[in-house]
């Protein structure tokens, strides 16, 4: 089974590159060309949307049990191709192969979860306001969904959007990131093999301006779901206002990772490494600021530096601790953040520069004496840089942590149960990891607050974003009329 498709998937047919304009997909490890995908324009987008409208009109009436069976088959095919999917993911995204395998498992888990949730969409019959009326509350699919996914998790971000949409009875037009289209196309191929009806899913490759304009302005796109930067999210809000689309936005983060004086330091170091350096720090939920109490600061830093300095950096296929960053834009941002911090008085504890391995590599880096005015504390770095700040009290920690427009993820380590609830409730973030650096799971509602967006993915709440609520007020029909002979 060939999973790398150098084609786009439009309205149930595969459109090969051929002689048409194309987009080159590079391997971030060495810059070599992995392949090409078509550069489609607005006509292809409109074709995909028109096919989705037709397919969705039938899919919404397929029983939940039947939709569940298709998704379950898709899940089985993903797991059967787990190794091949992971190898393809590592080739186009760069992450270590062990992390790629974990992402495929994570991606498949969303398909399995929403295969089950498809059968659990329920309305209700509330108490009526009148004795001769009945109120019926129904939940129906929102319609055709546009999905725009990022490059950092090119498999999981696809299934996290597609699975609940399809389970709810929607059709999807998907635009994956141009850096990593092959994972999305491979998943679409497996969905096709699982029996997904033609036209119900399209995967469009091409320039963001062309495809994005159609997706945001077309009146038959009823909902848009997006994962990416806050700046792009703001643009999408404006662009979809004219057709009043439903939106789910998972935007940028600036996660604090707080280590209180009573924390288990070794556990906190483990959690910081697990969360901060996964995918070379290219995750929206990774700690951007490590806030450490004065009493344990030096011990925490010493142990963290010892562990991080020993990391192996290398090509993802070789199973290193840290792989390459996605491209030169990512490298430039990391370099700017490190340079700004050092110019303002931060101390470099390890790393701090690129690698001889290649242009897209950056050594895992730890900075101490970071202050709130530095770029590394104000902006999402999206790289393997741990920026450590001190605090002296619980109030200081909360103030520092909440001093951001972002509100996606946060973390803290403590053994005090009273502090656990007090700090957990005080942090202005949609997700809080307590004594855990890993918070992503299909069974929990993933999403943020403030300028990190709105909507939730995963859990029983995840399917609700793809459903409209309708209520029927049913009155007496009156006596049946008999037609005269």
From TrEMBL:
GO molecular function: glutarate-semialdehyde dehydrogenase (NADP+) activity; succinate-semialdehyde dehydrogenase (NAD+) activity; succinate-semialdehyde dehydrogenase (NADP+) activity
Name used for this protein in its record: Succinate-semialdehyde dehydrogenase/glutarate-semialdehyde dehydrogenase
Entry's Gene Ontology BP terms: gamma-aminobutyric acid catabolic process
Organism: Sphingosinicella soli
GO CC term (a single one): cytosol
Keyword tags: Oxidoreductase
EC number: 1.2.1.16, 1.2.1.20, 1.2.1.79
Family: Belongs to the aldehyde dehydrogenase family.
Active site residues per record: 250
Domain Aldehyde dehydrogenase: 21-471
Keyword Oxidoreductase attached: yes
